[in-house]
Amino acid sequence: MISGNDKPGQYGHRLLVLLLSPVLALLMMLVDPKITNALTLLGAGDFVSSTAPSAPGVVHSIGFLTPLSGHQIIPTDYIIITFANYSDVTPATSSVGWTGGTPIYSVLGNQVFITGVSAIQGSGITISGITTTNPPTGQSAIVKVEIADDSSGTTVYDSVNIAPIPANRNTTTSVTVISFSSSFEFYGYTSPNAFVTILLNGSVAGTTVADVNGNFYKLIAGLQGATLYNISVYAQDQSLRDTQSLTFQATSLNDMNLIFSNVTIPTTFDIAPRTFFQGDFLNLQGSAHPYSQVTLFIEGSNDHSFVVQTDEDGKWTYKMDTRIYKLNVGPHIAYAKEVVQGGYTSIFTQEEAFEVKSCRIADLNCDKHVDLTDFSILMYYWKKPNPANHRADVNADSKVDLVDFSLMMFYWTG
């Protein structure tokens, strides 16, 4: 659903600070001189060219969204990126998303610094060009991003810890910002750890990574108010398969945040083989939200549908035995749709085409003859349950026996 939403400020912690006695505040500083009430940077990701231990020259592209109730970055602030267990760290070379200033890049040891820029709350920032040597095996690859008042991080306003993510696609932020009054906020479902891309009017406006439960969140701020946007959302699963794009339109509201909830990205979908003989298996597989129901559709000269359940990792497979579910010779298409827990239904996936070729019953090697070659194959699998060459089980009863031999004799061509 879509609803208007004005986010209130978070003032509870400020009242608490006012009530603290000077003595207590002094004790806090003695314990940890780095005082912080830091909020979490949203939608953060560290997209890297390699996650291999000790890999040299690894390129990092770090993205995050400053919280709407967080700190407004000013040119004297520092963005500090700490690569705790990395080596050979180089400074950033480019960044986008700032609303003012000129970025100044530097590095000291395993810390990268950016200063001289400003950004309002809700800004989407991307920092690129940092290179490192990855941590050795057994050491954490977590990267810490902080927005602080100085290079020492005396006061940290916003922060986040990020695990590296293999970069499977290059993205750039390209929304034209005219005013800063409107924003879109997305909550939805896809496969665990999927890379989610959101486009506005055909340009990438934001990316994020779903959590281990397949839930994703993204806020895109700095949009022009009272403007119609064409929105597309799609995901790439851990096997680098892209989903069908979910597309719709929405008009931004002046000084308002629109929330898109229960955005259900369809399952990824793949089939193999693309060409096979009558009686062979057709393998269908994909990734979706965990514990979802996926309905598969086969269309051609005769139609079939099947329902499968995804596992805790969102994966599903279906092995269609075309000896039981007959498919006529010729072209067919397959597609799917998903229903997540809660009853939210996706759009249909893309259509995947395949072709069925003719192969007569008992022709085990599909050479258009039932002869001694087929008999030899039958004898090899004699009395074996669920034979590797499933065509040897002519009547599809999971064993090779006299019934299969009798059928072969009936169709014998010599």
Automatic annotation (TrEMBL):
Keywords: Membrane, Transmembrane, Transmembrane helix. The chain crosses the membrane at residues 12-31. GO terms for molecular function: hydrolase activity, hydrolyzing O-glycosyl compounds. It comes from the Bacteria. One of its GO terms (biological process) is polysaccharide catabolic process. The keyword Transmembrane applies. Pfam families: Dockerin_1. This is Dockerin domain-containing protein. It comes from Candidatus Dojkabacteria bacterium.
